[in-house]
Amino acid sequence: MTTTSASALRSGTVAAAGAVLWRREGDQLQVALVHRPKYDDWSWAKGKLDPGETWIEAAAREVLEETGFRPRIGIPLPRSVYSMQQGKLKEIRYWAAEVMSGSGDLENEIDEVAWLTPAQAQTRLSYVRDAMQLQAVIDADRAGKLQTWPLAVVRHADSVPRKQWDGDDPLRPLDDTGRRQALALVPVLAAYGIERLITSPSARCFATVQPYAAAAGIRLRTKAGLSEEIFDKEPDRAVRNLKRLLKRGEPAALCTHRPVLPAVLERLRDTAEPDSEVHEILAVAAEDGMTKGEALVCQISGRGRAARVLSVERHTPA
């Protein structure tokens, strides 16, 4: 699945995004519904995309604005497409999400957030179409696939061409386009609540994820095994870095180079169900490569040898 801005939608289609916020009270699954007094309805937290905004950014922003809780975006859920009164189509993309932080303070558009069991939510929902997302959450929970953690694989952003650089290649910096791409990654990685960052020590990789590290206030760790130079001599070291992330099982991002990516993506592919869409997406990314500045985000259940990639989303630069 590729997640970009809504510019590719058919003219006249209204783009919106949201999430089913969930938590556990003891052993009981609960989901959050929001009430809009203007319409006197109960639904999922959602809203329209701002100009230039991506679906994932909008989903995280709208959940925060409407519930007062900062979400960690998880597995994708079924989207809703329906006709509006003005004759336009509206497409809403949804994800499951957990609460990372927040006060729960509400804005004027929402006057109540209700945490309900799935059965209670089923009877409270105002729109039949919202039952699709609820059922997907229930099914994922029963299958042990609702609780996940994100791993983002990032290819460094555009850099000064080799032919135009006189210094050592590891010191080659990002160009103007690359710096813009690095800034655009900040809200994407924030939506997934990335807490750990490892990168090739090359300047172009470090600078790609440094803006997010600064915004999130987290340490950026350099790993020589993710560099082109070390990979050429010791290719196993890149996969060892990935295995350590899989063992930790924490929201993380790994930034590296085009020649290193196939080894990393093939290792992730091997954790996906054979013949699945996820397996195919990772295989294609490994073979065809990733765009500079792209973040490929896997939702993973379990850790270590039990880690399994359940979904993949590709965030490409605009």
UniProtKB/TrEMBL annotation:
A GO molecular function held by the record: bis(5'-nucleosyl)-tetraphosphatase (asymmetrical) activity
Keyword terms: Hydrolase
InterPro entries: His_Pase_superF_clade-1 (IPR013078), His_PPase_superfam (IPR029033), NUDIX_hydrolase-like_dom_sf (IPR015797), NUDIX_hydrolase_CS (IPR020084), NUDIX_hydrolase_dom (IPR000086), Nudix_hydrolase_domain (IPR051325)
Residue ranges constituting the Nudix hydrolase domain according to the UniProt record: 12-138
Keyword Hydrolase attributed: yes
Gene3D superfamilies: Nucleoside Triphosphate Pyrophosphohydrolase (3.90.79.10), Phosphoglycerate mutase-like (3.40.50.1240)
Top-level lineage group: Bacteria
Gene Ontology annotations of biological process type: AMP biosynthetic process; ATP biosynthetic process
PANTHER family recorded: BIS(5'-NUCLEOSYL)-TETRAPHOSPHATASE [ASYMMETRICAL], DIADENOSINE 5,5-P1,P4-TETRAPHOSPHATE PYROPHOSPHOHYDROLASE MUTT
Protein name: ADP-ribose pyrophosphatase
Native source species: Flexivirga endophytica
